[in-house]
What we know:
Elements: E1 6-8, E2 11-14, H1 18-29, E3 34-38, E4 51-52, H2 54-62, H3 66-70, E5 82-85, E6 92-96, H4 101-110, E7 122-123, H5 126-138, E8 143-147, E9 149-157, E10 160-167, E11 174-178, E12 180-183, H6 190-195, E13 199-202, E14 212-220, H7 224-229, E15 236-240, E16 245-250, E17 256-262, H8 272-283, E18 290-299, E19 302-305, E20 309-310, E21 313-315, E22 321-323, H9 330-350, H10 359-384, H11 397-410, H12 420-424, H13 473-476, E23 481-486, H14 493-501, E24 506-511, H15 514-520, E25 524-527, E26 533-537, H16 544-551
Parallel strand pairs: 1-11, 2-3, 2-12, 3-8, 5-15, 12-21, 23-24
Antiparallel strand pairs: 4-7, 5-6, 9-10, 10-11, 13-19, 14-17, 14-18, 15-16, 16-17, 19-22, 20-21, 23-25, 25-26
Helix pairs in contact: 1-5, 1-9, 9-10
Amino acid sequence: xxxxxxxxxxxxxxxxxxxxxxxxxxxxxxxxxxxxxxxxxxxxxxxxxxxxxxxxxxxxxxxxxxxxxxxxxxxxxxxxxxxxxxxxxxxxxxxxxxxxxxxxxxxxxxxxxxxxxxxxxxxxxxxxxxxxxxxxxxxxxxxxxxxxxxxxxxxxxxxxxxxxxxxxxxxxxxxxxxxxxxxxxxxxxxxxxxxxxxxxxxxxxxxxxxxxxxxxxxxxxxxxxxxxxxxxxxxxxxxxxxxxxxxxxxxxxxxxxxxxxxxxxxxxxxxxxxxxxxxxxxxxxxxxxxxxxxxxxxxxxxxxxxxxxxxxxxxxxxxxxxxxxxxxxxxxxxxxxxxxxxxxxxxxxxxxxxxxxxxxxxxxxxxxxxxxxxxxxxxxxxxxxxxxxxxxxxxxxxxxxxxxxxxxxxxxxxxxxxxxxxxxxxxxxxxxxxxxxxxxxxxxxxxxxxxxxxxxxxxxxxxxxxxxxxxxxxxxxxxxxxxxxxxxxxxxxxxxxxxxxxxxxxxxxxxxxxxxxxxxxxxxxxxxxxxxxxxxxxxxxxxxxxxxxxxxxx
Length: 554
C-alpha cells in the first residue's frame, strides 16, 4: 500500500508565474494532472511586460482563453502606438502607428485566407494576465494549486522525484512524489541552482542610456493625460532629450503607468526622490505622482542556461533564459518552452513517448533561447546608440531640423515592437525527432515566411470567410498529433494503423482548399501537438511505424 503521508501527481511545477501556469494549463488540456507550487499566495501585483506576442496568443487560442486575455489591458479604443517626445509636454518627434484592440478585430475579420497572424500581438500588462491565468487554472480539474507553499528540497531517483513543500504561513509540510519536476521559478531559480546549472552569456550593456542597472517603477499620474497626453494617446511614450532618455508604458489608459529609469548609483536601491526628478525631466514640468513600487532589472541582459534539464527535472522560462525587456520576448519565449515541454511530458506519462523524446526539449529550445535573447539585446543596443542633438528642444530653425532628423531615425525602430520573425519564425532544425531531408529556410528576426518544411510553425490559413471561432486551421488541430490531408486522395490506413498500434493520439483533418494546398506544397502534413510540422509528403511514408517512432523519440 502507498504511504498515506505522500501525495502524488504525475508532474510537479515549481513557480506559479505565467510560464508555470501556462504549462499546467497545457498539461490539463492533454489530460495530465499536475501540482503547482508558488511561494506567494497570489500572483504578484506589479507591472512587468505588456506584450503577449502573436505566438503566445495562438497558444492562448488553443487553450480557449484568447478572447478573455484580449479583454484585459488598455481600453479597446486606446491606440497601441509608440510615441517619441522631447518631453511629454513638449514636441512629438515620431510615432510608430499600431492598432487599438478594436482595430485589430477589424483587421483580423478582413484578412485574406492565407494571413499568418490569426491572433495579433496584444498589449495587456503581465500582472493582469497572470491574475487571469491564476483564476482560470484554479478552476481546472487536473491542476492542484499550492500557492503560498515553498518547495524546500527535491530529490530524484530512478523512478521519480520527491519534493518537500511547506506552507508559508505555517502548517503541516507535505511530501509529494511525481514522475517529473519542472522549475519555472524565475531567474534565481531554486530548481536550477539545486541542479548545479549555471547561466552563460552577457550580463548587461553598459551605455549612457538604457544600459546596465535599471528600475521599473509602478506609478500613478492622475494629471498626465489631462495636462500633456490627452490628445496624444499611445501605449508607450519615450522622452528623448539631452538630459534623459526614458520610457513610460500605459497600464490602464487612465492614470497607471510603468516608468523605466536608469540607476544613478550602482547596487543601490531606487530612491523615490530620484525617480520623481526623472519624471519631472521627462514630462518637462511638475506633475502629481504616486509611487506604488519599484523593481530592478538589467538592460541588455542575454543569459541562457548551460542545460535545460537534468534527469527527470526540467527548467523553463526565466529559469533558463534572462532577457532585457526590449522587444517583449522574455515571457513569450517561456510560453513556447511550456508548449514544447508539455506534450512531451504528457507522452511519457501516458506511455506513448520514446526514450529520446524528453532529450529533444533542450535540443530544440536552447538554440531558440540564444536566438531570442540576442535579438532583444541588439534592440537595446540600438536604443542606447541613438544620438540626440543638444539643440533638439530649441525653438529655432536648428532645433526644428534636429527634431526632424531625430524623428526620421526613431521612425525606423518599428522592428522593436513587431519582430514577427522572432515571434513566429523559431525552428527546430537538427532535432532528433524531426526527420531530415529538406533544407530549412533562412532565419529573419523581422519577417516571417510560412513554410511546411518540417521543424517550423504550422502555417496558418482561414477555412471560411467568418474568421471567428472554429474558422482557423489551428482550431481544427487535435490535442495530439494531427495529419492534414489536402485533396482527400491519399490512403491513410497504414498511417492511422501505425499510430493506433503505438497508442499515439492522431486526428485526421481533410482540407479541400486550393490556397491551403499551395501554401503547404504537399498533400500530407503531420503536425505535432505543439503545432510544429513533424513531417510532410505527397504520399504516405514507406514505413509509417518508423516515422511515428522517430517523431515521439523512439
